[in-house]
Amino acid sequence: MLEFRKRLLSEDKYEACAVFDVNNDGITDIVSGAYWYEGPDFTRRHRICEVEAIGEYHDDFSDYPMDVDGDGWPDLITGSWFTETLRWRRNPGNNTDEWETNDIDRCGNIETIRFCDIDGCGVPEIFPNTPNEPQAFYKLLRDSDGKGTGMFQKVVIGEAASGHGMGFVDINGDGRIDIVLNEGWLEQPEDPFHTPWTFHPEWSLGSASVPVIGHDVNGDGLMDLIVGQAHDYGLHWYEQRKEADGNRSWYRHTIDDTGSQFHDLWLVDLDLDGKLELVTGKRYRAHNDGDPGAHDPIGLYYYRIDGGQFTKFIIDYGSAGEASGTGIYFWVQDLTGNGYPDIVAPGKDGLYLFENTGPVKETLR
């Protein structure tokens, strides 16, 4: 069992965060919403820009670092449901000037955004989850020196509306990353720019998490899926099976049916034992008070995986204001230098840092 030291960094209600070296001083910082928090202690914060409040949300459903304009300073990729626009914010390279926000594309309602180097170029492509639009990705165009130009190429790989949920998983074991959506998967061709990708309608995942995670849960050599219900109760894994005729089938197993709003998932080796743990929790008031379980306590958890069995460990649990959930985009990375991955958890309950101090030390009696 692991022990975590919890810190409240801010009571601001932004739901996304990222961890990277904002000011190029060699020390990792934390970004969330309108501010970045200077490492290594994260007590000093700097303004990025105005992030519009829209109802009980903010116009920021992703914070991800990418040097878009090639000037050596990491910029931010963001977007949201309400303004329907994929954007990047330019890092000015100092602690005083505001970051200029630039539109990439009016692409439809963005649930959140994830990133994958789909073509092996060394720079991840941008994949917004746009439930009402066909799945697309955006490739940063670079110059002859490999530096970003501030321009993007849009590649539409789906034909029907994507639905809620998205993940990067090699479903058929051909070595190419496919795109999982809530009603099936898009098969990556040899050339990822050859569109549309073939769609395989093999399941119905409901209000699926972003991401849906691919992992061989039971060790049978076939890729399975780990799926949270982002706006309902339930955390499940879908076992891939091969039938006698060679076709795939999927069998759903329950991991945890006691919680709701499992919107974001990470798979990471939290205890450094060489095995991956599932890290997730409740996105507090994901649809404000409109989801099943919205008024239940919130929490942050990890699950050990052993041959198809999941064992739950509570990192934090309780009422909002006392406990923390995960927001729409939390982050897992070692911030203290002890080797153990820490957890940065944003949300409408505030921005928290959970410092992973490693296994609980037994007390001798």
TrEMBL record:
Gene3D superfamilies on file: Integrin alpha, N-terminal
Keywords assigned by UniProt, alphabetized: Signal
One Pfam family from the record: FG-GAP_3
PANTHER family, per the entry: PROPROTEIN CONVERTASE P
UniProt name for this protein: Repeat domain-containing protein
Organism of origin: Paenibacillus catalpae
